[in-house]
Amino acid sequence: MVQSVAPAALLRRIYMRKPIAVLGVALAPVALTAGVIAAAPQTADGAIATYKLTYASLPNGTKQVVRWNGCQKTITYKVNLAAVPSAQRSAVLSDTKAAVAKVALNTKFVFTYKGTTSEVPKVGSMARQSAELVIAFTSPSKTNYSLAGSTLGQGGLYYGWVSRTVNGRTSYTVAAQRGFVVIDTPQMLNQARGGTGTGLRRTNLLAHELGHAVGLQHVSDTRQQMYPSIRTASPTLFYTGDRAGLAKVGKAAGCINTAYMPLKDLS
């Protein structure tokens, strides 16, 4: 039975896939749960584990942070509201835009809303998205990303890498190219309130999943929005560690040459 009072942590689950040699996926779920499942301690670039970044494992055994190109003109996004009752669509879209705006504020990226869509992200579908980021309010039966049990949503990104070999030395360039969020809409509407504030709110759920879409992973610090479960004590949108992580993967991190990446910018 799902309860909405001070849920405990959900153990972090991250799946890394390589559909072909130069593509990869990173994703993680968030849940509303009353079960007691211990969260493993996380590491971060900061002095304490208040944020954690997504890393790509490369063929030469090294790892690189996965982030969006700091010089990308804009990150386009579309929203699928099909599972939201028509009377609530305006409010849910407003909450979505508020969460995206907060990500934009902390990363300094420009996000451009391109309207609604009927697309529902599925495993293997991100390369075919009509926008760089697709946010889908859907149901567990419509996607093969797991929304089982108390899992409210999943978010993730699709990255590419290219290699260059000079004098026998190979270097790699990595960039995020697509992102997604899928939400268990019936459960969200039942458990989370609209508007901005602390606790069990749609904006906080969306902020968490969008954090994954721009390169953040779960942390064990209960003060942060990137803690693996949405709780009655969840912060308003992002807390200090979340904001530091978003800045780390944001525009200030610099340009990435994406000219030879497998996917093109859609802006």
Automatic annotation (TrEMBL):
<dbReference type="InterPro" id="IPR001818">
    <property type="entry name" value="Pept_M10_metallopeptidase"/>
</dbReference>
<dbReference type="InterPro" id="IPR024079">
    <property type="entry name" value="MetalloPept_cat_dom_sf"/>
</dbReference>
<keyword id="KW-0862">Zinc</keyword>
<dbReference type="GO" id="GO:0004222">
    <property type="term" value="F:metalloendopeptidase activity"/>
</dbReference>
<feature type="domain" description="Peptidase M10 metallopeptidase">
    <location>
        <begin position="197"/>
        <end position="234"/>
    </location>
</feature>
<dbReference type="GO" id="GO:0008270">
    <property type="term" value="F:zinc ion binding"/>
</dbReference>
<keyword id="KW-0645">Protease</keyword>
<dbReference type="GO" id="GO:0006508">
    <property type="term" value="P:proteolysis"/>
</dbReference>
<protein>
    <recommendedName>
        <fullName>Peptidase M10 metallopeptidase domain-containing protein</fullName>
    </recommendedName>
</protein>
<dbReference type="Pfam" id="PF00413">
    <property type="entry name" value="Peptidase_M10"/>
</dbReference>
<dbReference type="GO" id="GO:0031012">
    <property type="term" value="C:extracellular matrix"/>
</dbReference>
<keyword id="KW-0479">Metal-binding</keyword>
<keyword id="KW-0378">Hydrolase</keyword>
